[in-house]
Amino acid sequence: MSTALIHQAASLLLLHPGRDWPHRLSLVTDALDGVPRAQAEPLTRFCATVAGVPALELSARYVTTFDRSRRRTLHLTYYTDGDTRRRGQSLLEWRELYRAHGWQPPADELPDFLPLALEFAARCPEPGRKALQDHRAALELLRLALHEHRSPYADVLEAVCGTLPGASPADRAAALRLARSGPPTESVGLPPFPGRPTVAHVEETSR
């Protein structure tokens, strides 16, 4: 139950902070009262950090953090597929996963958008958590990139990664090794394996 609450809370916090942001933040803060302190601590810390930030300022920070840097994108398949043809198949697999469990995400967002994946995991824990685990490398690369950017959103990713089995990679090199061991055959920012196509390289466009 607490894992589902962490996933739902993280989903709400990772959506763009629009007009409903104060209400969303209040909902999350109240919900975290029912989560064990150790699990809730990163999210509680994030909520406390942004509580006094005006919504317009937080919105600008959000755009700079997630929308202007490929290294910090919230779209999970970009970390493993980049702008390759394989990404279309990966996105289709996400859509089929949702449909197989009677869940219809918004039509105006790609299915690998992390807040959607987290909401799915909260609603359908078994397949949702497996999907997050399958994209563990992407989540860890995002977590580390947010720490490098000194973004408070790193705490949200800390909470999400903390719900997955096993320890998190200590650094980007370790996360890249994790990505190499996963199922995708093309990986963002990774050197090509023998006999495989040249990978898509993602360069950070803004810090």
Architecture blueprint of SSEs:
Blueprint: H1 2-13, H2 21-31, H3 37-50, H4 55-67, H5 77-81, H6 85-100, H7 114-123, H8 125-134, H9 136-148, H10 153-161, H11 172-180
Helix pairs in contact: 1-2, 1-7, 1-10, 3-10, 7-8, 9-10, 9-11
Write up this protein.
- This protein has 11 helices and no strands.
- The termini are far apart.
- The model is unreliable at 182-207 (pLDDT under 50).
- With 207 residues, the chain is mainly α.
- Helix 1 packs antiparallel against helix 7 (114-123), helix 9 (136-148) packs antiparallel against helix 10 (153-161) and helix 9 (136-148) runs antiparallel to helix 11 (172-180).
Structural class comes to mainly alpha
Total beta-strand segments = 0
Please give the radius of gyration in angstroms.
Answer: 17 Å
Average pLDDT, all residues: 82
Strand content: under 5%
What's the story with the biggest beta sheet? none
Question: What tags apply to this protein structure?
Answer:
207 residues; mainly alpha; 0% strand; globular
Quick structural gist:
The protein has 11 helices and no strands. It is mainly α and 207 residues long.
